[in-house]
């Protein structure tokens, strides 16, 4: 019931999140492949900041706060996967533009 009460009190935020999902999908779907590499590099930088922020949260939380430690560990893991995957995709995109021998 707490979730339903929270959603009821913050319905404007729910609408903004849903609208931003639709706008994000539309914007990302219309990006030409030439711009993919610079955008992926920017996304990698953002996720690097997420990793650093999650580490800072984990360092500042008490050892008894399993929620903060668990969510921080999950954020570090997923952020690292996203950064590594982004670099792999960026490298593959750059390989496409190299001249073949």
Description:
The chain is mainly alpha-helical and 101 residues long. The protein has 2 domains: 1-30; 33-101. It is 82% helix and 0% strand. The chain is built from 4 helices and no strands. The protein has helices at residues 2-9, 11-29, 36-60, 66-96. Helix 3 runs antiparallel to helix 4. It is flat and about 60 Å long. The protein starts with a helix and ends in a 5-residue tail after the last helix. The model has no long low-confidence stretch (mean pLDDT 84).
Short description:
By secondary structure, the chain is mainly α.
Mean pLDDT: 84
Fraction of residues in β-strands: under 5%
- The helicity comes to over 70%
- The figure for the number of domains is 2
Largest sheet: none
Shape: flat
Number of helices: 4
User: Tally of extended strands?
Assistant: 0
Uncertain segments: none
Termini separation (Å)? 64 Å
Instruction: Decide which structural class fits the backbone.
Output: mainly alpha
Radius of gyration: 19 Å
Oligomer state equals single chain
The ordered string of helix (H) and strand (E) elements is: HHHH
